[in-house]
Design goal:
single chain, 118 residues, mainly alpha, flat
Length: 118
């Protein structure tokens, strides 16, 4: 499971860097999604992937697979709503994406407490 998290993390890093270059080139610094891509996309995926790599027992459960898909699909819905949909119409999609990410984090915490032994 860790390799999926790390590969997706690398994709988010590439998208974040490309968006940063675009923002700098156009002097348009109003992209709220930029920081979300880097923090929730790159950094969080990398941290979870590293934890799953160091503690193989965490990535073997069905809970880990559900968490991966819920997190990344929810994050994509959230980011698309922020980037491409008019603010007047994107509220519902932002909430759907944010709730999916929050539920995924809750599953991650459950996975840590259930499967990580000292």
């Amino acid at each position: 499971m860790s390799t999926y998290w790390l590969k997706v993390s690398a994709l988010y890093l590439a998208v974040g860097v490309a968006l940063g270059i675009y923002m700098y080139a156009t002097c348009n610094y109003e992209w709220v999604a930029y920081i979300h891509i880097l923090i929730f996309g790159w950094l969080t995926n990398a941290v979870i992937g590293t934890l799953y790599m160091c503690h193989k027992c965490l990535g073997k459960s069905d809970l880990a697979k559900a968490q991966f898909w819920l997190y990344n699909i929810g994050l994509i819905v959230f980011l698309v709503a922020i980037l491409f949909i008019s603010p007047a119409y994107c509220g519902t999609w932002i909430y759907i994406g944010a709730i999916s990410v929050a539920l995924s984090v809750f599953l991650f915490v459950i996975n840590i407490f259930n499967n990580l032994r000292t």
